Amino acid sequence: KNEVEQSPQNLTAQEGEFITINCSYSVGISALHWLQQHPGGGIVSLFMLSSGKKKHGRLIATINIQEKHSSLHITASHPRDSAVYICAGQSNFGNEKLTFGTGTRLTIIP
Amino acid sequence: DVKVTQSSRYLVKRTGEKVFLECVQDMDHENMFWYRQDPGLGLRLIYFSYDVKMKEKGDIPEGYSVSREKKERFSLILESASTNQTSMYLCASGTTGGAFFGQGTRLTVV
């Protein structure tokens, strides 16, 4: 069993829909990262959070430490949001090691 | 802006060749990482380094070695490339503030 599990693996939605991607982890972490990877591109860090909620534009990330669960939400989704979204737990041993989920491939249809 | 730069976006090498993948970061980070990314497996840690000349094996170090002679540069070496090392390779660096990724190198071994 992966230490970081994401769901769903694939998600297709119509433009404008509200999107939720979930991440559960079983390891001890100091922070959780949400990353975005466009086709053929590198990875961009969207959020790093250790408690509560963060918002950036149409993106919202939440984390529940007790339940070891995080969600990434996209409001008013747009085709340019199509990408792979990856959650990763950052080690709490001080060496910044990340444990990754396998990613959620999001496709937004115009 | 933090920059993590990988020397090549695409590489094609022959089986048995020695391959060098270079990564440079400009933020004086102590920790640097090499990952490979394969469909269905997500990102897996090959090696990481927490200081100059210091290195630790990650989850899949077999067939790889690394070099960190200067703080800003972390090199991944495939001693004798094999076809099962065809993959996307990602370098990252980080402090307690987060993780920053290069754009990735897609390596094909033929």
Protein described:
The complex is a heterodimer of chains A (110) and B (110). Chain A is 0% helix and 61% strand. Chain A has 110 residues and is an all-beta fold. In chain A, a hairpin with a 4-residue loop joins strand 7 and strand 8. In chain B, strands 2, 4, 5, 6, 9, 10 and 11 form a seven-stranded mixed beta sheet that branches. A four-stranded antiparallel beta sheet of chain B has the order 1-3-8-7, with no helix packed on it. The termini of chain B are far apart. The mean pLDDT of chain B is 92. The chains are: A mainly beta (110), B mainly beta (110). At the A-B interface, strand 5 and strand 9 of A face strand 4, strand 5, strand 9 and strand 10 of B.
Question: What is the topological layout?
Answer:
The complex is a heterodimer of chains A (110) and B (110).
Chain A: E1 4-7, E2 10-14, E3 19-25, E4 29-37, E5 43-49, E6 52-56, E7 59-64, E8 69-74, E9 83-91, E10 98-100, E11 104-109
Chain B: E1 4-6, E2 10-13, E3 19-25, E4 31-38, E5 42-51, E6 54-57, E7 64-70, E8 73-78, E9 87-95, E10 98-101, E11 105-109
Parallel strand pairs in B: 2-11
Antiparallel strand pairs in B: 1-3, 3-8, 4-5, 4-9, 5-6, 7-8, 9-10, 9-11
In short:
The complex is a heterodimer of chains A (110) and B (110). With 110 residues, chain A is mostly beta strands.
How many beta strands in the DSSP annotation of chain B? 11
The end-to-end distance of chain A, rounded to whole angstroms, is: 36 Å
Radius of gyration computed on alpha carbons of chain A: 13 Å
Q: What kind of oligomer do you see?
A: heterodimer
Structural class of the secondary structure composition of chain A?
mainly beta
Q: What's the story with the biggest beta sheet of chain A?
A: 6 strands, mixed
Work out the number of β strands of chain A.
11
- Helical element count of chain B? 0
